[in-house]
Amino acid sequence: MNYVSGFLSIVIALFISSTGAEDVVYGQVGGTVTLPKLKWGSEKVTVQWYFGMDQKSLIFRNAQGRETIDPEWKDRLSLSKTDFSLIINKIRLEDFKSFKCELKDFRPTQMTSVTTFRLSRVSVQPVSPLLAGKNLNLNCDVKEIFEGTQRRWLSPQKQDLNKDKRAQIGNNGGLTVMNVTGQDNGEWTCVVTYQGREAYANTPVTVIDLSPAHTQPIYTSVSSLSLLHLPCFFSIPLPLSWSGSQEKSIQGGRWTFTPSPAAGSLTGAVQTLVNLSPGPPLAWVANQKRGLDVSALQRKNLNLSLSKKGVTEGDRGDYTCAVEFQRDDTLKREMRVEVLQVFTSPGPVAFLGQEVNLTCTLGQPLTSDLEVKWIPPHHSSLLPLDSSPHPTLLTIPEATYGNGGRWRCELWRNKTKLTSVEITLKIERVPMDVWLLVTICAAAVIFVLLLILTVILIRRHRQRVMMPRRGKRRFCNCQDPKPKGFYRN
Ligand SMILES: *[C@@H]1O[C@H](CO)[C@@H](O)[C@H](O)[C@H]1NC(C)=O
Ligand SMILES: *[C@@H]1O[C@H](CO)[C@@H](O)[C@H](O)[C@H]1NC(C)=O
Ligand SMILES: *[C@@H]1O[C@H](CO)[C@@H](O)[C@H](O)[C@H]1NC(C)=O
Ligand SMILES: *[C@@H]1O[C@H](CO)[C@@H](O)[C@H](O)[C@H]1NC(C)=O
Question: Which N-terminal residues, if any, form the signal peptide (predicted)?
Answer without folding.
Answer: 1-21
